[in-house]
Amino acid sequence: MSTALRRIDLSANTSSPDHDGTRLFNPFYPLVESSYVAYAVLFLAGLVLAVGVVANMAVMCVVWNNYYMRSAWNYLLASVAFWDFLVLVVCLPVVVLNHLSNRRVLGDITCRMVPYMEVVSLGITSFTLCALGIDRFHAATSSPEPKARRVEHCRSVLLKMLLVWLAALLLSSPEIFLWQLSQAVSLLSRLLLHVLQGRMWWCFGCYFCLPVLFTVLCQMATRNVNSDSSSAQKKRSHDERSDSQKRQQHQAVERQLNCTLLALAVVYGVCALPEHVCNITLAYTHLTISEVTAAILALLHHFLLFLKCAVTPVLLLCLCKVGSG
User: CATH assignment of 4-230+247-324?
Assistant: First the structure.
């Protein structure tokens, strides 16, 4: 996510001169104390990249190759896996190389592309959590009788995905222009400060509070509806005992889907909250941090996002009723 802290880091990289001309700085030689940190960052990045790429590809392949998994629920999860895959493959190497070489790779292109793709990924995840919460609430308020699984029409699935994608792509578009605005700090410093603070609160509300609160409220409403329906089922006559096993299986599937949605929201919230807390604290406490500290915090925030991209598909595969929607 592009925030004030990352702008500090990017501005520092922009203003720092290239001491070696066109030659990249080698953080691994000579072998000093900072080299061990570079090796640790490289090892962690390789581990996150390998796990995330394999897991996200597995989720996409499972959904794509199974006819009975072609529902809006599963395609939304597959779209999250697709964007997480892109963020890991495109953004992670650029971020690590920028940090280790102390210079920007490909100039303004990566400074625009990386924040945009990261915020799009957060938007896809946020709006997908909201859509899945609506799906779970709709399933709880519909008929409690178990229904045969059906494959949704392609038009219905594409419409739901299109709404999520368009919202994420359009709302993330200011990230492309914020980098250009940050280049005019000397002329528009006060305007830039207000823009970044507004963007900070917008990201906190739209990409953190909205999906987390939406998921919690949908879970609470779903549990209340399920408790009311279960108490009503206990009052039914004994003639319906023959359908009890099917009903129990149906309820077990619904509980697992609710647990999957809640687990996704927890992982997302845990990985996104530290950056928001850090940015708000730095913006309103007037703390001064060095460029080295800002670079370390920015790298940590990047890695939290990459960790979310790698853990989410692993979680789906472990819970592995991806196709139960």
Answer: 1.20.1070.10
